From TrEMBL, chain A:
The keyword Transferase applies. It is an enzyme of class 2 (transferase). Its EC number is 2.5.1.60. Pfam families: PPTA (PF01239). Catalyzes the transfer of a geranyl-geranyl moiety from geranyl-geranyl pyrophosphate to cysteines occuring in specific C-terminal amino acid sequences. This is Geranylgeranyl transferase type-2 subunit alpha. It comes from Parathielavia appendiculata. One of its GO terms (cellular component) is Rab-protein geranylgeranyltransferase complex. Keywords: Prenyltransferase, Repeat, Transferase. The lineage of its organism: Eukaryota, Fungi, Dikarya, Ascomycota, Pezizomycotina.
UniProtKB/TrEMBL annotation, chain B:
Signal peptide: none annotated. This is Rab proteins geranylgeranyltransferase. One of its GO terms (biological process) is small GTPase-mediated signal transduction. It holds the Pfam family GDI. It comes from Parathielavia appendiculata. Belongs to the Rab GDI family. GO terms for cellular component: cytosol; nucleus; Rab-protein geranylgeranyltransferase complex. One of its GO terms (molecular function) is GDP-dissociation inhibitor activity.
Length: 431, 493
């Protein structure tokens, strides 16, 4: 009975009318569900985390993946059963504790976690908390690499854990297909992935994470604008780049990925955003000198202008263009793409952009965002040159503002503010 | 069991072409007594697909005058064509039409559950052939049809891109105001004029747009052109990224005739191939038929195909098997898109010249099919070239084929392993009713499936069902299989 959640970017919800027959079937299903739930709770109350309970959680979660308590029961079943017994090291106990902090834990009579009750579990990266999740827990990472590790054949315990982990990941797949935005499923997946780092050698754990990247790409293929999926992707990439998985930088590959995503859908705000985040590291890794940086900026500007040429009504494109312009205007506030630019350079670039955008007006006379862009950039130009608008610029600003008032009368308050702020009121004009 | 003659049939369907087969599908749950015959030894009639051997028999029959609307069929196998595989490795389609995603045919196949038996492949990009200019080799230019494709293409200037975008947006909303008022004055005039006047498009850009219409005359009207383009654009991405039309595997529409007849048979219809009508007589409200099998049957209704040519121009076709997989034509350009199995190349009117030096009067369309279609073995491709019939048509098609397989780089040119050429005339384009005899219109030679083809099918169905006809149930069926028990959900893990 997993709910699909809100609209999935254009796919509307439909209301269902139930016949008498369907109603009875539903009542039956509900009864069976409650039966399952009661069974699980009863056994857990007695501290039973056997494989029988594990099987029950499979059935229950299949019906309701949002029942986060049951995900926790499943974790405990794995720890007390399927996973190989923890060896002396601390690695396993910290791994054991890596459960979702927001889940209500079952009553504390848990046999295996004798030493654990006092410590607070570290939070794994939840999909929306991409930033905090990017660094692996250092204690776990350190403990997973035994000092002086030599490549040897995987032990029986490690192979067994590998199989268990893969099987658990496979278990979540059909659930994700039904409920792609259910936080608890993703949280469980992340926990399993963390277990992979904790229990497997880096090379083996890496294969699991690489497959995860494949999954993230697939999810983004199905819904390119799912920002959860983008954040998740960044987390996975972050882990793949980290020491605990013997990783190296993936900036170039990720940058190429945004290229492909943009080519398949220009309107992908998340792809453009990802791109903007990658640029500083990209240029650094390429050890780009001033000439290379200038060439890079030229190419970025050209591409976004090409995009605006076919999609001037698309806000995500304007946001990215603005991002590039702000690089010129506020070199200190943003990681500078072109730190070597003089004011003269910046002015030249901005002037060019303004001219190019004016050309769009030839064929797109009624697109609001073009006028907003021109207005903003002209003021930036004056700011860069530390002057007030010249006479012809003032005339332009007044004209564009008039157009904005006509195209977007709902925001007349905003246009009035702009008018006053920049002293553009002509005597007796309508507001 | 009753013999054929003892039964008073509710309907006898003659011919297993697309419309007749869809009718059989539509009636497959009705419990009506249906006798479905076809004078050919194969299913599909004008929409059939042939192995090489079947093609030869068919071509022979056509050239001896019993081809119905088909004429002048000939087969050429160049000397030394050693790579030609066995006859059954091929399935050459007489009706290689692409079906737009928005087409009603697809929704009917879905609602009737028949879609499960067909494998659909993606139709990829449309290209325009640009003749050699100065010292440059001829090139194929991909026609952009989505915003992202317009963005990516390097063959169009910035200004032209803006015009193209404005037009694409216009078309998608062409049935609403104010767009409707803008084009209605041009409705029956050529689309090219409208593009020039209202969108300032130059000849090249106009060509791109016209190609989308797959218009055989090359001068499609504004009204028809906008409708076809809108169908193409609104079909884009409907069933997945990167494609606007699909193509049934194993021989195009032939496959649909096969599964429809199969459904008819499962529903109780009696099938007889190699059986035609020798004589017919209408007696009161019944039709008495003497079949070529010797049987005499009586039926309440007879549905058959039209076999007489109308005066209108038909088409010339050239089907060629070549020894190259043409991999570069069948690549998906969009992330996550399926690999296309069909690519369409247009040779605009005038871009080809015959050996005698005359320029082609009408466009030529080349539909390239990869082996993914099941129509030829791996490593080969099938090319279907079509143009409106003129005295030069045959020569023009041969020229188009020559140019197409001519290599632009240093690679070897692929060999032509097999060629089938024929003419297909057009017949009446509306159905006819004469008492209990219902005659389907002749198949149209257009390159993409037109939903108007489905109208006569429903008309026939209505007449067979009489008072029992419920439109909501037309081609709407439940699966014959038993639905999965909900209990299974509990036992999967």
């Amino acid at each position: 009975m997993a709910d699909q959640g809100g609209s999935q970017h254009g796919i509307a919800r439909t209301s269902r009318v139930r016949t008498e027959e369907q109603k009875n079937r539903d009542l039956e299903r509900i009864a069976r569900y409650h039966e399952l739930e009661d069974q699980v709770r009863a056994r857990v109350a007695q501290g039973d985390y056997s494989s029988a309970v594990f099987q029950l959680t499979s059935k229950l979660l299949r019906l309701n993946p949002e029942y986060y308590t049951i995900w926790n029961v499943r974790r405990r079943c794995l720890i007390s059963g399927s996973f190989s017994k923890p060896s002396a090291g601390s690695s396993c106990s910290t791994a054991c504790l890596t459960s979702s902090p927001t889940a209500t834990t079952a009553p504390s009579s848990i046999s295996c976690l004798s030493s654990s009750s006092a410590t607070t579990p570290p939070a794994p990266g939840l999909p929306t908390a991409g930033k905090s999740g990017t660094t692996a827990d250092p204690t776990v990472a350190a403990a997973a690499e035994p000092p002086g590790a030599i490549e040897s054949a995987p032990s029986e315990a490690e192979s067994h854990d590998f199989t268990t982990l893969k099987s658990e990941l496979a278990f979540t797949i059909p659930l994700l297909l039904e409920s792609p935005k259910c936080y608890w499923i993703w949280s469980y997946r992340l926990w399993i992935l963390q277990q992979a780092i904790a229990r497997l050698r880096p090379a083996l754990a890496r294969t699991v994470w690489e497959e995860e990247l494949g999954l993230a790409s697939k999810m983004l293929g199905k819904d390119r604008r799912n920002f959860h999926a983008w954040g998740y992707r960044r987390h996975v990439v972050g882990q793949l780049e980290s020491r605990s998985l013997q990783g190296s930088s993936m900036v170039e590959a990720e940058f190429a990925y945004t290229d492909r995503m943009i080519k398949s859908d220009l309107s992908n705000f998340s792809a453009w955003h990802s791109r903007s985040r990658l640029i500083p590291r990209l240029l650094e890794e390429r050890a780009a000198d001033e000439a290379a940086r200038r060439a890079f900026l030229d190419k970025e500007f050209q591409q976004i202008r090409e995009a605006l040429n076919v999609g001037p009504e698309d806000q995500s494109l304007w946001y990215y263009h603005q991002f590039l312009v702000l690089n010129l205007v506020y070199p200190d506030k943003h990681p500078a793409m072109t730190p070597g630019f003089t004011v003269h350079d910046r002015v030249a670039y901005l002037k060019r952009e303004i001219d190019e955008i004016k050309e769009l007006l030839e064929d797109y006379a009624d697109i609001q965002l073009i006028y907003e862009g021109l207005f903003e950039y002209t003021l930036y130009l004056c700011q860069l040159e530390r002057r007030n608008p010249k006479a012809d610029e003032r005339a332009d600003l007044v004209e564009w503002l008039a157009k904005l008032k006509q195209l977007d009368p709902m925001r007349r308050g905003r246009w009035a503010d702009l008018e006053r702020e920049h002293e553009l009121t002509a005597g007796g004009s309508d507001v | 069991m009753e013999s054929l003659s003892d039964t008073l049939w509710d309907i006898v369907i003659c011919g297993t072409g697309l419309q007749q087969s869809l009718l059989a599908l539509a009636l497959s749950r009705s419990g009506k007594k249906i006798l479905h015959i076809d004078p050919n030894e194969f299913y599909g009639s004008a929409e059939a697909a042939f192995s090489l051997q079947d093609a030869e028999s068919w071509a022979h029959r056509v050239s001896t005058g019993s081809g119905g609307l088909f004429a002048f069929a000939s087969i050429t196998k160049p000397e030394g064509a050693v790579d030609l595989s066995s006859s059954r490795a091929y399935s050459l389609a007489l009706a290689p039409k692409l079906i737009h995603a928005r087409s009603t045919l697809l929704s009917r196949l879905v609602s009737s559950r028949a879609y499960r038996q067909v494998e659909f492949l993606a139709v990829g990009s449309f290209y325009i052939f640009r003749p050699p200019q100065d010292t440059q080799n001829p090139t194929l230019v991909r026609i952009p049809s989505t915003r992202e494709e317009v963005f990516s293409t390097t063959d169009v200037s910035s200004k032209a891109k803006r015009q193209l975008m404005k037009f694409l947006k216009f078309v998608l909303d062409s049935e609403a105001s104010p767009q409707l008022e803008t084009w209605q004055p041009y409705a029956d005039t050529p689309l090219t004029g409208f593009l020039q006047q209202e969108f300032n498009m130059d000849a090249e850009l106009q060509m791109y747009i016209i190609t989308f219409t797959l218009s055989l005359e090359g001068n499609i009207s504004t009204k028809d052109g906008l409708a076809v383009i809108r169908r193409h654009l609104s079909s884009m991405g409907l069933y997945g990224p990167g494609f606007a039309a699909i193509y049934p595997k194993w021989g195009g529409l032939s496959e649909i005739t096969q599964i429809s007849c199969r459904a008819g048979a499962v529903g109780g219809a009696v099938y007889m191939l190699g059986t035609g009508i020798k004589e017919m007589e209408t007696v009161e409200n019944e039709v008495k038929l003497q079949l070529t099998s010797g049987d005499t049957v009586r039926t309440r209704m007879l549905v058959r195909a039209s076999d007489s040519a109308s005066g209108q121009t038909g088409i010339n076709r050239l089907v060629a098997v070549i020894s190259s997989p043409l991999s570069s034509m069948f690549q998906s350009i969009v992330e996550g898109a399926p690999r296309p199995a069909v690519a369409v190349i247009a040779f605009p009117a005038g871009s080809l010249s015959t050996p005698a030096g005359r320029a082609s009067e009408h466009p030529v369309y080349l539909s390239a099919h990869s082996s993914d279609t099941g129509e030829c073995p791996v490593g080969q491709s099938v090319l279907y070239l079509t143009t409106l019939s003129t005295p030069d048509a045959k020569a023009v098609l041969e020229r188009a084929l020559d140019i197409f397989i001519c290599p632009t780089s240093g690679d070897e040119a692929p060999q032509v392993l097999y060629q089938l050429q024929y003419e297909q005339r057009t017949g009446p384009d509306t159905f006819e009713v004469d008492g209990p005899i219902f005659t389907f219109p002749a198949p149209s030679p257009s390159l993409s499936f037109d939903d108007s083809t489905l109208v006569p099918v429903r008309e026939a169905w209505k007449r067979v069902m009489g008072d029992a006809a419920v439109y909501a149930e037309y081609l709407v069926f439940d699966d014959r299989d038993v639905a999965l028990d909900d209990n299974d959900v509990y036992d999967t893990w």
